[in-house]
Prior knowledge:
5 strands
Amino acid sequence: MxxxxxxxxxxxxxxxMPNIGAFIAWGLITALFIESGWCPNEKFAxxxxxMSSMLLPLLIAYTGGEVVAGKRGGVIGAIATMGVIxxxxxxxxxxxxxxxxxxxWIIKKFDKMAESRIPAGFxxxxxxxxxxxxxxxxxxxxxxxxxxxxxxxxxVMRAGVGFFVDHGLLPLASVFIEPAKVLFLNNAINHGILxxxxxxxxxEFGKSVFFLLEANPGPGLGVLLxxxxxxxxxxxxxxxxxxxxxxxxxxxxxxxxxxxMNPFLILASVAGGACxxxxxxxxxVGLTSAASPGSxxxxxxxxxxxxxxGLILGVAVSALVSLLIALPLLKxxxxxxxxxxxxxxxxxxKRQAKGAAxxxxxxxxxxxxxxxxxxxxxxxxxxxxxxxxxDAGMGSSAMGATVLKKKIQAAxxxxxxxxxxxxxxxxxxxxxxxTHQELGERAALSNPNAERILITNFLAAPEYDLLxxxxxxxxx
Length: 476
């Protein structure tokens, strides 16, 4: 079930993540030039509405369609989405997420049905006219059929959110957001759910707190600071570096393993997130667009100009609350668990569930926590391409790929390409995939022929050094 939820969430966020630059451009223009912006300019502010109502939904629809059926799917997705855009007075981000992929799926099915029936020499004619005719029909259907459905869904969501806001219950959203983040659903929540709601609020109020519900780095910062103070072993030594990457770099995935190895710490992040949201509401804090990555720098850049004090205070309070709760939990409930031990324990539980013999405790202490899965392929062959995969392919995977590149260069190994990629679209020519253990099954589905190395610590995983030794043997 978690695998299916992750895949669906990845699909939603996958329509938004490639277009984050466009969202940031729109957010900057909004923050600078609207009537309450830093440099009010009526002429430049005319860009705000067309970008949010047309450009961004079309980009989302094209990206979603391209994922399903390539560029042809992207084009028909954009065509059909014009129907929901013209048929509604609100930005149709949810409509684009529905119509774009659905239209691409329809043209994909048509192409498969027609491919053996097209006379030679008529391929281009049939392809162009089928795309135009089906696209036009879908745009009309979307305008009269999908638009009312999405409008109704937006009204329900607006009423639900309004209830929480009016009754001061929005901080309770952390009860759902923080655990979902740790299960690597952070991008799905932020870009698939909260960002469309936030953009509609910006249209009305010029800012939105929804952009801060997931992106707030405070809860994770508090957990990492607790490890700096009360952690042990590799977890404590790697925590300071993780603090910098998380808070300044905005890669939230860096702190997820620290909670996974002591699950009670989720209480700290939930409490910290709730307190942060409370402060944001109290000071009427909002961002003008999605902050991605979720670093304090990105938050400050996207903040509405009257929101700086409340923003900084909210992040600080959420970090402090998270730290104060995480410290006793670490001392009294996680005193015997290190990052390495947690990985070994989880591997042992997996082997036991599959009926495999458990290794002795002495062997487990001596053996580093490595899990290589050669799902087909020759382990004696030279390695030319390695991929570091994460959920979106932009955050922790980019950081991990940088770490691996430096280690490979330091070892004097040449001719090895290291890339970072979304876990759901690992290239077929990749021979070794490095990813977090929570994403191992998705990596296997994406590229079943690659060897998989599952890690828990993005910064200081012992698997990195073992991989380097293996590469030295195989690339002599």
